[in-house]
UniProtKB/TrEMBL annotation:
One Pfam family here: RVT_1
Domain annotation Reverse transcriptase: ranges: 1-115
Matches recorded under InterPro entries: DNA/RNA_pol_sf (IPR043502), Rev_trsase/Diguanyl_cyclase (IPR043128), RNA-dir_DNA_polymerase (IPR053134), RT_dom (IPR000477)
Species of origin: Solanum lycopersicum (Tomato)
Domain of life, source organism: Eukaryota
Signal sequence coordinates: none
Listed name of the protein: Reverse transcriptase domain-containing protein
């Protein structure tokens, strides 16, 4: 699952908003949500995923940057784990793009490697 838009779903702490300011014309604008180009965006995403997915990490979930892999041996286990995973995302108001999801893959192409 690709959560590339996740950065726009993570709110910036109020005290850190001025650090994101940019000036256009005579006005300064501050970001209210994380954007991908910010220095700590990947670290913030990783901390969020560690926090909400902690019980499942390395049991059936692996997170790398904005990619998430859910794995298991049997179809029944995969379905149950996907149910738990999507429930956690729903509870935390995090949404992915259905078009970027791949389910029940025998070979997974990830970071230039083929995992089977």
């Amino acid at each position: 699952m690709d959560l590339s838009k996740i950065y726009y779903q993570v709110r910036i702490t109020e005290g850190d908003m001025p650090k994101t300011a940019c000036v256009i014309g005579y006005k300064a604008y501050e970001w209210l949500v994380m954007r991908f180009g910010l220095t700590n965006a990947p670290a913030s995403f990783f901390m969020l995923m560690n926090k909400i997915l902690y019980p499942y990490l390395d049991h059936f979930v692996v997170v790398y940057l904005d990619e998430i892999v859910i794995y298991r041996n049997t179809l029944e286990e995969r379905v149950e784990h996907l149910r738990k995973f999507f429930q956690v995302l729903r509870e935390n108001l995090i949404y992915g793009k259905r078009q970027k999801c791949e389910f029940s893959q025998h070979d997974l192409h990830l970071l230039g490697h083929v995992i089977s």
